[in-house]
Specification:
By secondary structure, this protein is α/β, with parallel strands linked by helices. It has two domains: 233 residues, 3-Layer(aba) Sandwich (Rossmann fold), CATH 3.40.50; 252 residues, P-loop containing nucleotide triphosphate hydrolases (Rossmann fold). It is 34% helix and 25% strand. Strands 6-9-10-3-11-12 form a six-stranded mixed β-sheet, sandwiched between helices. It has a six-stranded mixed β-sheet with strand order 18-21-22-15-23-24, with helices on both faces. A hairpin with a 2-residue loop joins β7 and β8. α13 packs across α14 and α14 runs parallel beside α15. It is globular. The chain starts with 6 loop residues before the first strand and ends with a helix.
């Protein structure tokens, strides 16, 4: 007797004004398997997952769970059917404990009071069962990124999930945390949980998935297995053509120092350990300097201090030999500091504003976005159209709001905006987070072209392959200090991850 699919989609179609997000999608996920869904940004993966999770209703097609057709009106319906989703951007309250985050909205009752003991016992039991051990009493603000992800997974298991959707689950993890996550996924699978795994990292997909469905331009183009494909073949299925062969490059680093940071320090607002301590480094013309560190070790504060958003910082910052330390943020932008922010939606875009206004952000007082003191709408639209063309931003036009774009296309707009402004030094914080392999390759090419044109680039990334592949030198930041300077040609992601956890700090010193 044939096994009944856990989740089955037939002919699923979803249309939005000006775009068909999903068209006749076919997806069959078998019970207890890890099923990866891969595709370029704009391929329709996110819309498809939202349909399965009840966030979006399809215009056509059917969804079946355990062989029974379902019609979800909301995520509540999907949760009741046993579907849980862990989003790429965690949805946790930092000032709450693990227990409070997990039970929020599903509090167990003992009479009129919340039964915290029962909840704590249940969390510990789930952690033991699925290899996701956590202390229910710890506050989320003190957890590592990997631990926060465990909280998100425990949240959905606590609500009875039998089917788990993981959206870009390794985006902010170091290799050791990825290994721990994959061990947990294997534990989940061994206990009968069905996992849908969304990722842009094809080597990880090949290592964890039982089967892989590839999407392109809103359609499913095929389902395969890791035994039948390698990363190159899988990438070619995604983009519909052969990938270019990578070329080795000669160093473009010059002797001219563009950015010189000396003794940059920042005290903690609560009187605890300093957030930044005596940070010093240089960025030369034609150089990409990487900064590697586990999230929460001072990277965000370093960026803020460099662009003028940390008024309490001390030290010195020289741009082309001139001090900009006392400059305000807008003055530093005007002097030639460009920024690709870590969080495109919170820091890089006005989501309800049209693309041409977003393209002008930070540059609104310069040509072609301005004429004197006035906004030049015609010039801004023309420049935005150029960014859309050059960076392959998939959009019906430059008048649509930024919120209408997929996350990857939002990111390409932000990257394009900063690169075409031709800054002296570009601070690129997570420039390819959440974008697919095709868009990632395009961004890398633009960064390399900018370096070849003598731009200096400070690259902060959670993607260790990206850091190693692009950087001319890599600094490791740990607890607010630069603890090592490494040669990318002489290290692996595993070695870099060891430094990032502090295990090699003494040796580095």
């Amino acid at each position: 007797m044939a096994q009944v699919p856990a989740i089955e989609l037939h002919g699923v179609t979803k249309r939005y004004p000006g775009v068909v997000a999903n068209q006749n999608v076919e997806l069959t996920v078998m019970p207890g398997e890890v099923h990866a869904v891969v595709g370029e940004n704009g391929a329709g993966k996110s819309t498809l997952m939202k349909i399965i999770y009840g966030m979006v209703r399809p215009d056509e097609g059917t969804i079946a769970i355990d062989g029974q057709e379902v019609h979800f009106r909301s995520p509540k319906d999907a949760i009741e059917a046993g579907i849980g989703m862990v989003h790429q951007h965690f949805m946790l309250a930092d000032n709450f404990t693990v227990l409070e985050n997990v039970v929020l909205g599903s509090e167990p009752r003992a009479g009129l009071e919340i039964d915290f003991r029962a909840a704590s016992d249940r969390i510990k039991q789930l952690g033991e069962t699925y290899g996701l051990k956590l202390d229910p009493s710890r506050k989320v603000e003190f957890l590592s990124v990997g631990e926060r992800q465990r909280v998100e997974i425990i949240k959905v298991l606590y609500r009875g999930a039998r089917f788990l959707i993981l959206d870009e689950p390794t985006a902010v993890l170091v290799p050791q945390e990825v290994d721990e996550l994959f061990d947990s996924i294997r534990d989940l699978k061994s206990k009968g949980v069905t996992v849908i795994f969304i990722s842009h990292k094809l080597d990880e997909v090949l290592s964890i998935a039982d089967r892989i469905t590839v999407m392109r331009a809103g359609r499913t183009v095929g389902t395969t297995t890791p035994e039948e494909v390698d990363t190159k073949k899988l990438a070619e299925m995604m983009i519909g053509s052969e990938l270019p062969t990578p070329e080795t490059r000669e160093s473009t680093v010059t002797d001219r120092v563009l950015l010189d940071v000396e003794g940059l320090s920042l005290a903690a607002s609560d009187g605890g350990r300093d957030v930044l301590t005596d940070v010093s480094f240089k960025v030369h013309a034609g150089e990409i300097v990487g900064v590697a560190g586990i999230e929460g070790n001072g990277q965000a504060q370093l960026v803020d201090a460099l662009i003028g958003l940390e008024a309490e910082a001390t030290g010195e910052i020289l741009l082309q030999g001139e001090s900009i330390f006392k400059f305000q943020a807008l003055e530093r932008r005007g002097a030639g500091i460009g920024l690709i922010p870590e969080d495109r939606q919170k820091q890089g875009l006005l989501l309800t504003s049209p693309l041409w206004e977003n393209a002008a952000l930070g540059h609104q007082n310069k040509e072609p976005y301005a004429k004197g003191i006035w906004i030049n709408k015609k010039g801004a639209r023309r420049q935005t159209e150029e960014i859309v063309r050059r960076f392959d931003v998939k959009t019906p036009g430059v008048d649509v709001p930024a919120t209408a774009l997929s996350g990857g296309n939002q990111q390409k707009l932000v990257v394009g905006r900063e690169i075409v402004a031709d800054p002296v030094v570009l601070i690129a914080a997570q420039p390819t987070r959440g974008i697919d392999i095709g868009a990632q390759a395009a961004v890398w090419e633009e960064l390399k072209n900018a370096r070849a044109a003598d731009m200096g680039i400070l690259l902060l990334s959670a993607d260790l392959e990206e850091l190693i592949g692009l950087s001319d030198a890599i600094h490791v930041i740990f607890e607010g200090r630069l603890v090592a300077k490494l040669d990318p040609a002489a290290i692996t992601p595993e070695i870099l991850g060891t430094y990032m956890t502090g295990a090699s700090e003494e040796r580095a010193s």
